[in-house]
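Feature request, filed as a ticket because there's no other form

It would be nice if the structure record came with a short human-readable summary line next to the tokens. Right now we just get the raw output. Example of a typical job, pasted below so the devs can see what we mean:
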Amino acid sequence: MDFKNIIYAFACLSFAIVIGGAIYEHMGVVPRWSAAPPASLSMFQGKYGLNPAPFWMTIHPVTLLLLTTAIILFRKTDCKAYLLTTTIGYVIVLIITFMFFVPELMAITGTPYSENIDSSLTKRAKQWEVLSLVRLAFLIVLAIVAFLGLTKTK
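Raw output as currently delivered:
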């Protein structure tokens, strides 16, 4: 296995880690905080509140760097189209994430704690969750495209 293939494999691995993190959050974290906000938001608050930002702020640039490097290394091969499709789709998802998902998540989770359940906040949280699941499904399709590129002649 040569250096190019190792970079492609790491790009796929990094992209899979993004999806793994999203699946974990959707299975273990989102159902808890979205259940009955603002009462259910206490997990994000206080000195020891959950802060997933360092993970996401690290994995996204690493994944983009690896995908971009793989595009450069495979620019004259059949793999290029798979890598470009994945990378362009991923960049679009990241733009939407930073324009909508992150600000809405910060607005919801930053709501001060209260024992009372806010029905409008709960509705916003559920909408965020549904849209985020659509985003996750799109990322899974992009990952499949990236992995399919590994099967092409290099």
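Something like this underneath would help us a lot:
The CA atoms of residues 74 and 136 lie 26 Å apart.
Residues 3-149 form one domain.
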